[in-house]
């Protein structure tokens, strides 16, 4: 694969699509949430100068746009070089294929399985206890029994380990000493607000299966909390393993499958101990690549079919400012009253830079007004009646979470995954890097590999309601998810990386 072998986006007879300006592309990612939601995604330059969320820029349009801008052209040219699409891989298909879409008996089985998975409540709340044996985690015990009953072939054919009570690690030993690949999912879900339950078309734990319910949900769909996030991926991975075992497939490269039970609240009880166990066995950087869930998937954008691979992930930090001042009546307020602080965070800000900003901006003002100050664990010698506390809050990543290391786009893993995507979703699919604007369990896996991909292998139009009302996924979307993992594992045969 040549590094300069770029594949341009398809050209049409119509007028070319206007390339979004830098500011517009930036604002598509900059979503303020809460008092201080730290958007630390350090994406490649392409994300902010190219095609919206995707790291693919149209060189011709940018070149024309910059004509006549004098000395700025040279600098912008260097950005354009970075903003080019990665070399596009060729489709990869090794061994047998599975025409899962036309496998009616399996489709019926898959719909029923996913429906039953949704009916088991595995909610994570922010205040979940640290002890995994607490009764509040009992739903995961029930879910574990369900999976073992549904996939007996997988449980008997692979090495299965329970990690920290409710997390699971499957190991399918390969015949070679090549680095393993690691496929991830999680079984927990976000809660359902009781005030919104009557807004659901079907009960959030019903696992309702519909056929041609509406123009927006043609064909077969499965409804309920967790249908898309993330029991679809979990069931798809296990379904693909089951099929391969039935075909007597024996991998050359070891396949690891892990799923945690607290991703929605940070992954410290599930993904973290699994990652520590894997690192203990295979060493630092001992995994070839990781694929986990992502908001990115298959979509139509700018006249092309695009598969967006999440190759970066934002950091996060919640800062709490507490101001204590003597009381008084609102009709006669003191000269200085408590107020709010608003601060925009740059994409590339680190946790340290953000803390320093608060210290540099807030502390001098507080001192001038006669406040004593506690900031990020540093306490004053004397605490006054007027006191300001600046702290990081949250029960996960209590010191803040840095942006994830950026996955390289010139690696063999990128070409391998991209080639598999082209086989499953069409050879003209453009493989493009993007950034994940939410956090995933991969935040716990940075020591295992530099090749971390966040990707949902289905059309983004085939799911909806994630983290809100009417969560659902089409059966077709679930089947393509299963098909992708099946082909991915098949393709590892002979792949040297």
TrEMBL record:
GO biological process: adaptive thermogenesis; amide biosynthetic process; amide catabolic process; amino acid metabolic process; lipid metabolic process; proteolysis involved in protein catabolic process
Keyword check for Nucleus: no
One function term, GO molecular function aspect: metal ion binding
Keywords in alphabetical order: Hydrolase, Metal-binding, Protease, Zinc
Database matches in InterPro entries: ArgE/DapE_CS, Pept_M20A, Peptidase_M20
Sections of the chain in a coiled coil: none
Pfam families for this protein: Peptidase_M20
Superkingdom, taxonomy of origin: Eukaryota
Protein family according to the UniProt entry: Belongs to the peptidase M20A family.
The protein, known as: Vacuole protein
């Amino acid at each position: 694969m040549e590094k300069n072998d770029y594949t341009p986006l398809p050209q049409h007879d119509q007028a070319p699509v206007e390339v979004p300006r830098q500011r517009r592309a930036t604002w598509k990612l900059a979503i303020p949430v809460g008092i201080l939601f730290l958007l630390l995604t350090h994406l490649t330059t392409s994300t902010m100068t190219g095609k919206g969320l995707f790291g693919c820029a149209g060189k011709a349009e940018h070149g024309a746009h910059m004509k006549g801008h004098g000395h700025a052209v040279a600098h912008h040219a260097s950005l354009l070089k970075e903003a080019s699409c990665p070399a596009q891989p060729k489709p990869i298909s090794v061994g047998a294929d599975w025409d899962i879409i036309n496998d009616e008996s399996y489709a019926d089985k898959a719909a029923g399985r996913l429906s039953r998975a949704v009916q088991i409540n595995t909610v994570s709340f922010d205040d979940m206890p640290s002890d995994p044996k607490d009764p509040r985690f009992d739903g995961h015990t029930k879910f574990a029994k369900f999976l073992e009953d549904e996939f007996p072939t997988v449980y008997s054919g692979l090495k299965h380990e329970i990690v920290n009570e409710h997390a699971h690690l499957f190991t399918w030993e390969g015949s070679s000493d090549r680095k393993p690949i690691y496929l991830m999912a999680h079984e927990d879900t976000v809660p359902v607000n009781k005030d919104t339950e009557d807004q659901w078309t079907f009960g959030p734990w019903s696992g309702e299966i519909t056929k041609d319910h509406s123009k927006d949900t043609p064909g077969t769909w499965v409804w309920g909390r967790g249908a898309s996030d993330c029991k679809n991926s979990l069931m798809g991975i296990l379904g693909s393993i089951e099929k391969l075992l039935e075909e007597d497939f024996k991998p050359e490269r070891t396949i690891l499958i892990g799923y945690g039970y607290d991703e929605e609240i940070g992954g410290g009880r599930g993904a973290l101990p699994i990652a520590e166990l894997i690192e203990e066995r295979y060493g630092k950087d001992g995994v070839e690549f990781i694929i986990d869930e992502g908001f990115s998937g298959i979509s139509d954008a700018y006249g092309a079919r695009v598969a967006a691979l999440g190759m970066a992930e934002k950091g996060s930090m919640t800062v709490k400012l507490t101001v204590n001042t003597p009381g008084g009546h609102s009709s006669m307020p003191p000269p200085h009253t408590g107020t709010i602080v608003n601060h925009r965070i740059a994409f590339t800000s680190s946790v340290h830079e953000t803390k320093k900003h608060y210290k540099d901006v807030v502390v001098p003002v507080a001192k001038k007004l006669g406040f004593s100050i506690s900031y990020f664990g540093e306490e004053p010698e004397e605490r006054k009646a007027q006191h300001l506390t600046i702290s990081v809050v949250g029960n996960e990543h209590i010191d803040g979470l840095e942006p994830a290391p950026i996955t390289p786009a010139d690696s063999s893993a990128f070409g391998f995954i991209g080639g598999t995507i082209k086989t499953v979703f069409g050879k003209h699919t453009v493989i493009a890097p993007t950034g994940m604007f939410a956090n995933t369990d991969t935040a716990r896996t940075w020591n295992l590999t530099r090749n971390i991909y966040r990707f949902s292998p289905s059309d983004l139009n085939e799911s909806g309601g994630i983290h809100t009302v009417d969560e659902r996924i089409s059966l077709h979307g679930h089947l393509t998810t299963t098909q992708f993992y099946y082909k991915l594992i098949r393709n590892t045969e002979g792949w040297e990386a």
